[in-house]
Design a protein that fits this description.
single chain; 230 residues; alpha/beta; six-stranded mixed beta sheet; five-stranded antiparallel beta sheet; 9 helices; 34% helix; globular; binds adenosine-5'-triphosphate; binds magnesium ion
Length: 230
């Protein structure tokens, strides 16, 4: 069974007197150990799709299944807290806290089983994504963009979730830093067996993924491309 699945997902936004269809009965499934990217023109509905699978918005009809169970039934808030990790383009960290504190916030609100010593564990996770003990104790606004994104990734994985959802996580980074962050996401899927779902504008980023979902603006549905190059 796929870890995440959408069934006839349908979503519209008001557009003047009418409604604009953003997702037209989308049926897609996502597996662990795989790195997915979502491509599509600006305004095609990529962020909207992520907000639905992140339970930040609700579909008009259709459903989203986590391990075969509707996230509505699981409870949207519970699903967000325990089952997914989200990484944003602008990192969304708490600027007056340091890296380890930012990670500990996520670890302290999840209901998933955590180690007793969450600080020690947070430091280990940060180390594993390339943030050493010194940087981990530094306030967020004194870290570079690439370092901040590493902290955001550490936060997303710190609660032992299987699904990592990211909206243009390299959009604010230079191309070299972006490459190293993409490698990290690839490792999350291929080495740590996470299901990684990432929106990107860059074909180069999409080429590094296993499966590309192209959001077509004629059909408002996905075209699924299996990438043989990876
Ligand atoms: N709250 C809203 N009310 C009405 N329309 C909205 C709302 N949010 C988004 N839209 C519209 O829905 C469409 C899809 O938006 P979305 O943000 O999902 O696109 P996107 O593919 O992520 O674009 P980008 O690549 O520019 O980030 C756009 O036409 C946008 O203007
Ligand atoms: Mg977007």
């Amino acid at each position: 069974m796929s870890i995440l699945e959408t069934r006839d997902l349908y979503f519209t936004y008001p557009d003047g007197d009418e409604r604009k269809v953003i997702l037209n009965n989308v049926n897609v499934s996502f597996d662990k150990g795989m790195f997915y990217t979502i491509l599509g023109e600006s305004g095609s509905g990529k962020t909207t799709f992520l907000s639905l699978i992140s339970a930040l918005d609700k579909p008009e009809s259709g459903e989203i299944l986590f391990n075969g169970e509707s996230i509505k039934k699981i409870g949207y808030e519970k699903y967000r807290r325990n089952d997914i990790g989200i990484v944003f383009q602008s990192f969304n960290l708490i600027p007056y806290m340091n890296g380890v504190e930012n990670v500990m916030v996520a670890m302290s609100i999840t209901e998933n089983k955590m180690d007793k010593d969450i600080k020690k564990k947070a430091l280990e996770i940060l180390e594993s994504v390339g943030i050493d003990g010194n940087k981990a104790m530094r306030r967020i606004n004194r870290l570079s963009g690439g370092e901040q994104q590493r902290v955001a990734i550490a936060r997303a994985i710190s609660t032992n979730v299987d699904i990592i959802i990211a909206d243009e996580p390299t959009g604010n980074l230079d191309s070299k830093t972006s490459d190293t962050i993409i490698e990290l996401f690839k490792e999350l899927a291929h080495v740590r067996n996470k299901c990684v779902i990432m929106v990107t504008h860059a074909q180069k980023v999409a080429d590094a993924s296993d499966i590309i979902l192209k959001l077509n603006t004629d059909t408002q549905n996905f075209e699924v491309i299996h990438n043989e190059m990876v």
